[in-house]
Amino acid sequence: MTSHDARVLAAAVKDGSTTASAIIDAHLTAIDALPHLHAWITRVDGAAREHASGLDAARRRGEVLGPLAGVPMGLKDMFVTRGIATTAGSRMLTGWLPPYDGEHATRLREAGAVLLGKLSLDEFGMGSSNENVPGEAVRNPWAADRTAGGSSGGPAAAVAARMIPFALGTDTGGSIRQPAAMCGVVGMKPSYGRVTRSGMIAFASSLDHAGPITRSVRDAALVLGVLAGPSDGDATCVAEAPGDFVGACERGAAGLRIGVHKSALDDDAIDPEVRRAFTEALAVLDGAGAVLVDIELPHAALAVATYYVICTAEASSNLARFDGIRYGMREPGSTMTASLEATRTAGFGAEVRRRILLGTYVLRENGRGAYYDRATRVRRLIADDYDRAFAHCDVIATPTAPQPAFVRRDRDADPLAMYLGDVFTVGANLAGLPAISIPCGFTAGPPRLPIGLQIVGPHWREDVVLAAAAAHEDATAWHRAAPPGTVGETSFGRGSS
Amino acid sequence: MAVQYESVIGLEVHCQLETASKLFSACPLEIGAAPNTRTDAWSWGLPGTLPVPNKAAIESAIALAVAIGCTVHRRSRFARKHYVYPDLPKGYQITQGDQPYATGGALEIPGDAPHRVRVQRIHLEEDAGKNVHAASTSGVDYNRAGAPLLEIVSEPDLRSADQAAAYMRELRTIVRALGISHANMEEGTLRCDANVSLRPVGADTLGVRCEIKNVNSFRFLARAIEAEILRQTDLLARGEPVLRCTLGYDHDRDRLFVMRHKEDAADYRWLPDPDLPPLVIDDAWVDAVRETLPLLPAARRAHWRGLGVAVADASLLAAERDLADYFDALLDAVGPARARRASSWLVTEVLGRLHALPIASCPVGPKMLGELVVLVDDDIVSGRAAKEVLDRCWAGEGSPLAIVDARGLRQTSDTAAIDAIVAAVLAEHPRQVAMLRAGKANLRGFFVGQIIRTSGGQANPRLVGERLDAAIGEEPS
Q: What is the ipTM of this complex?
């Protein structure tokens, strides 16, 4: 039961071959079996069972069920859920029970998805290893000493470990795609403005995206279709209706021009096994009829620096509201200012404090010209690079991350090394482009670790990204591999499905 | 020889827009509601909430910009201004920084010598909540948090405290005429910060300015500015420098106090708000709003002045939209030729009887008042009788004409009848007649009064005067 994709489960619920309750019970059992992964922050088993039996009753009454009927899901704890603790992975929000549901929770519930709980993350989405947490770091299901990636480490680990067929993550600089790559699952970030941010706790507003983590490209298309579309709660969300994402998965890759930025792959920081898997993935696409073309992204080397100026600036602003006055934790103090300082010092972890300090610095009246304003201009150049590249190709392929999952705590002392891991992912955030990470192989091991292929498309062209990704998936079986100790078909070899 | 200084004043006026909901959320807006009962997730700055602009607030903003001749920019931006205060739920205020939606207008302070004041810019922003201090605790009321404000920044074109207050009044008149704000200083829907500096008369550079914050009445505004001018004059006379600072005004003690000096100025860490796309106001939108604008106070005043209405009356009548509308209806009833008489009856008799109540509570409508004004203007009733008629109309006794007829208040212009009364009255008072003829002119009024009284109030006073003068002028027989 727990190895099935979301669309398979929903179809089974709708045709009566199983019940939502049976599905939920099986997945709750799978979660119970893997507590050492520390994927979940909050579970809502009771509410989930109640919701499932409600769906089963609705089906018996002959009601039409949604496209995700009876499908269990988890939300990264950045998504606001009414009456269910929402922490952003921070001590700061201890005790906060939101009085409202975010639009993501609402849309997914209306589609029939059943929330099992809230998933772990790097605090406020800041990190690439899911180690910036108040409690235990999330373990990689493929190797417990490895990070699950981040910041959506909980969602990626839970989907990889067959606890749930899909989760919702957030991606500010790669936080959906990088953990998806490291856990061997599919993670997709849509175009900026395609999916609402209303009800998603903000890290860096101009870079934040919500998107699905699944075990297949078609599931990603299905979930994205439920989430996409205009929103009354987000002025940056476009009014136009999204296209047919699920249908786009059947187009194939014949004739699709795949852009490859070769010089970016010469970097010594890229693991040879990642380079090998990426080359194989290009061969798979070539075999599916795609055309490989060389492209240049002249400002790509500036992307990480640009990203960290903009994301810290916006983070310092977005996190200014956490003052202990209206919600969340509050440390006492003899004055308002003393209480505020004590609250923010105790409430935020080291990485969040570091980014608030950096962001405050780059927005100073005497420094913003050299940092924030300049980064904004470089961002424009990076976006222009993509525009020019897409004149010659339909999508761009890169490895998702330069390295497979690294050993936990390995990069504690060197935040810069951690930041450089975002080299392939931040560009799509800076330019607001749709991008997906799909499994494309494993390291030789031991341990054998998943490797991800990233496909980036032009603005609003999720359909082309999905078509290319589905073509690769159709020609390989990497996405069917299940980590040791989980139920499912373990297959490291390349094969057709 | 001591240097003569002139004061240079610029105002930053905040005006709360009277929209149904807040600037960036559907949360209802209501002045005077119990604390924290007009809030939503956005007003509290809860995580996950985002701003969505309120179209009605933008339309109000366009209306004011058009009314005072500003350029409305096709593209402007909202920005975040950061500072720490409990009444600021997000740790930043969404406002407009270097890209306001409107710049470069002007308004004219009315009067015998109208004064033009340039408006540098107007921008749209959200209000903060309000700190409420009790004996040992402080609370915050977030009802106002997120309310739409317009900030109207003048150029330093004002030269005195009275002029500053007059500018504020004119601005209030305009926003009320537009119907976009209560614009009430006591209520906080109109607020003002004043920048004051001094410079030698004739200089074209500006002196060091000090900013007076949060003054909450016209009277205090003028007094605070006066006090600041005196303070700076005193410093300069002693040869001491004026230091740039922000001042508060203590209403109870009528005193200014320094809130902070320039070196303590906050770094607001301005950031274009990534949650809000650029605000786009195209010409078609501006034109559509322009179409809906009512006649503006300055235009009304000019029109009425052209009809002969006194300057003071025109200003007074234009100040409130309802009153101005009443007067226009009154003009419709009496015709433009009687504008001056109509305005003086409205100002003196009607407003006098209203004792500062709004015109909406006047029991005599413009049509009825118009009927009365025509009766007076056509010499059908005397002014004195007309006041009685107005009292009776006020009391609901009917229309002016009906009252005049029922009470026999029509004045007579029958020369023979008036001559008979004149003769009778003169005969009764031979000694006074002799004194009047000897040159004691103030007795004339006594006779006019006696004659009109004898006529039962019906004799036309103008005719009485003429006939009396004729009778006195004749040699005694």
A: 0.95
